[in-house]
Design goal:
This protein is mainly α. It has five helices and no strands. Helix 3 crosses helix 5 and helix 4 packs across helix 5.
Length: 137
């Protein structure tokens, strides 16, 4: 009789994993839309740094597809770069892009919580476009 609870737990875990995966795919899709709106002008649609506004920057935008180092994606650094708490010299200090402030002040996103959700979606998308490590497929 102990197998029935174990089976139920296994099925619940599988369902939770599928739901989480769908949520992640939705976040990545929404992050892609935000990326195109806020980031692609400098970083390019492909994330490699060749957007139409890149030439106007003091420093070339980084290749956002190459942020994974030693198999690790530094989510916190990417998040703080987007929200403005980590100043990037190419952005002229903390003035650009402080998307956290922009998202928090937008009419349909009037809260810090909404801003953090959108930043999380952007980070999810950027993580999804990371180039595979050398020697892997």
């Amino acid at each position: 009789m102990k197998t029935v609870p174990a089976l139920v737990l296994m099925l619940l875990g599988a369902t939770a994993g599928a739901t989480e995966q769908k949520a992640d795919l939705k976040a990545i899709g929404q992050g892609r839309a935000l990326y195109r709106q806020y980031c692609a002008s400098c970083h390019g649609l492909d994330g490699k740094g060749g957007g139409p506004s890149a030439a106007a920057l003091k420093t070339a935008p980084p290749d956002l597809t190459a942020l994974t180092k030693d198999g690790m994606f530094d989510e916190a650094r990417v998040r703080t770069s987007i929200d403005g708490t980590h100043a990037a010299t190419a952005h002229g200090g903390r003035d650009m892009p402080v998307w956290g402030r922009v998202f928090a002040k937008s009419g349909d996103r009037p809260s810090e919580g909404g801003a953090q959700t959108e930043i999380w979606m952007l980070v999810s998308y950027i993580e999804s476009i990371q180039a595979p490590a050398a020697g892997t497929k």
